[in-house]
Amino acid sequence: MKTTRRNLLKVTGLAAGASLFMDPVEALAGTAPKDPSTQLAMLVDTSRCIGCQSCERACAEKNGLPAVTGQPDSSQRRATGPEAFTVVNDNSTAAGSVFCKSQCMHCDQPACVSACLTNAMYKTPEGPVIWREDKCMGCRYCMVACPFDVPKFEYGSINPRIRKCAMCYDRVTEGQQPACVDACPQEALLFGQRGQLLTIARARIAERPADYVNHIYGESEVGGTNVLYLAAVPFEELGFRTDLGTVAYPEHTKTFLYSVPLVLLLGPAFLAGLRQATGSKGGGHHG
Ligand code: SF4
Ligand code: SF4
Q: Which of 50, 68, 71, 181 to mutate to test the pocket of ligand 2 (most atoms within 8 A of CB)?
């Protein structure tokens, strides 16, 4: 768009308007816990995973991503990205090779949602955390805020999007399981209500204490997540961060957000106006 005085006024006008669509209190409301035990969640039992990548392939197919090429290789750690919303890594541990799938953790109180001033990153009442293209201003605060380094920006694209796993939100609201869960031949992935999955996870640990460390990753990390993990080895050996604590990240920023006048947050709002004025396309609600 050619920058004329008229366009500039339009942009600044939109920026002022943009400041109205989300205030800090509303932003925090999106991260409030809504009975996490009944939310939809996934249990990943790494002791059952054989590294077949069926979950990766199903995810790629469901989300229209490029075909899976890399393989789990203990000498190389693969990360999720705009073209791979879930990846399986082969971890060398004291107990040998352990495969582990990673993706968005769908936190109970997500830092990405707390950081997003336009509510583009959104914690659904059902549990999955989704990204909404029509609301995104491209500030990438969600990327900075995420303790698990999950949201990724399409830097090489003309119309870049934030990309990440949406826990197949469209499928699960129609009563289906996420594509990765459906595809897993080992039942290493279970899908259901978070409370029920925690009961199953605790029962597995109690029934076979020699086969599991006595910890369910995600039960309390960063205030709890909707992806839960079981493992036979300490989670740090699988590349998990174990230094995140049990306090939800939005709790750390709450005091700051409640005390900052909205005018100080107008920089991002200006970007939102600019993005709208320069004709970003609206679109889907799923990352
Ligand atoms: S893992 Fe990161 S992107 Fe996913 S919900 Fe948590 S904070 Fe948001
Ligand atoms: S489909 Fe199941 S067994 Fe295969 S890599 Fe994924 S989680 Fe592991």
A: 50
The pTM score is 0.81
Split at pLDDT 50, 70, 90, the class of 251 is confident
Burial of 111-124, coded b for 16+ CB within 10 Å and e otherwise, reads bbbbbbbbbbbbbb
Q: What angle do CA 148, 145, 70 make, to 5 degrees?
A: 35
Consecutive H or E run containing 193: strand 189-193
Is the four-CA dihedral 30, 130, 134, 154 of positive or negative sign? positive
CB 151 within 8 A of CB 177: no
Query: What does the alpha-carbon distance between residue 111 and residue 281 come to, in Å, rounded to a whole number?
Result: 26
Taking only the tens place, the pLDDT of each residue in 134-176 is: 999 999 999 999 999 999 999 989 999 999 999 999 999 999 9
Query: 49, 42, 175, 33: which is closest to 110 by C-alpha?
Result: 33
Tell me the C-alpha distance between 258 and 248, whole Å. 16
Residue identifier of the C-alpha nearest atom 5 of ligand 1: 106
By percentage, how much of the chain surpasses pLDDT 90?
Answer: 71
Taking only the tens place, the pLDDT of each residue in 56-95 is 999 999 999 999 998 999 999 999 999 999 999 999 999 9
**CB-CB contact of 149 with 239 (8 Å):** no
CB 197 within 8 A of CB 205: no
Amino acid at 53: Q
Query: Which helix (DSSP H) or strand (DSSP E) does residue 26 occupy?
Result: helix 24-29
Q: State in Å: Cα 106 to ligand 2 middle.
A: 19
| Chain centre distance of CA 275 | 23
How many degrees, rounded to 5, is the angle at CA 202 between CA 56 and CA 51? 20
55: Cβ below 6 Å to ligand 2? yes
R_g (Cα) of the chain, nearest Å: 20
